[in-house]
């Protein structure tokens, strides 16, 4: 396994594995026995960075979520997992009532919601301190200063370490970080957005987001990373839900443009040259690139995890990387 440091403050920064494990469906669509087996293998391979959210996976059974965090708590206790494993979670997008959603009934990012949601997450995970806490989705009904100060209070109390943000417009991220800096408060240091080798169209809605840039790590976000090298991007859905490898998993409609076949062809060429799978090439391209990107992968079986773990040791040549970068 390889490792990267996230965060800049010596009091909160952490060294994590370059491959993060997503626990979104653990405890719901992935049963407990399988989830534990995947987690055990990940840790055995040197993995130290696990991702969840307080709303995972409310859509599986019409609940408010929390199943993934609860399963991770049971796994931690049963295995004696301590501070060596960094568990990141998110808040702000849990439905306020079972059977509702986060588009019209989310917990939001008020100071009260942040404090209460973080406490529930700590209880489910069985930890005194959340290693990394994200603002999951935007809440423009709450003043930005209130959200910034609400997160900062938890850091000051020692119940939260690093702060992160996901699915926010870049101007909102920058404004929040500026508010924090002006007040001498901790700000967002980790960004979590969808990113893969294939590039989507940014003139189409992305899922629930009217602006395609909110969910995708597009040119604006990558430019931001170039300007702010202390930030880290955690890239969710790097393998596009299996669409690179599975004929029954078509690419989302926002990837239907002339650049997609060109980039796919280069990926397949490099995969043949290296003897690796296309999935492994995508992950190796992210891990070894010029930006600090940590791919976040899900796995519903140990076999799936094994394929992604092998990507960590795949070293692309300068020529291969240049061709992957240049394809358009």
Poorly predicted runs of 5 or more residues: none
The gross shape turns out to be: globular
**CATH level-3 fold name:** TIM Barrel
Radius of gyration: 19 Å
CATH class: Alpha Beta
Number of helices: 11
Largest sheet report = 8 strands, parallel, barrel
**Could you report the average pLDDT, rounded to the nearest whole number?**
94
Strand segment tally: 10
**Distance separating the two termini:** 31 Å
Strand content: 5-15%
CATH architecture: Alpha-Beta Barrel
> Superfamily at the CATH H level?
NADP-dependent oxidoreductase domain
Q: What structural category arises from helix and sheet content?
A: alpha/beta
Give descriptors for this structure.
15% strand; 8-stranded parallel beta barrel; 328 residues; TIM Barrel; alpha/beta; globular; 11 helices
Task: Give a structural overview.
By secondary structure, the protein is α/β, with parallel strands linked by helices. The protein has a single domain (3-326), classed as TIM Barrel, CATH 3.20.20.100. Helix content is 38%, strand content 15%. The protein has an eight-stranded parallel beta barrel, surrounded by four helices. A two-stranded antiparallel sheet has the order 1-2. Helix 3 runs parallel beside helix 4 (111-125). It is globular, with a radius of gyration of 19 Å. The mean pLDDT is 94.
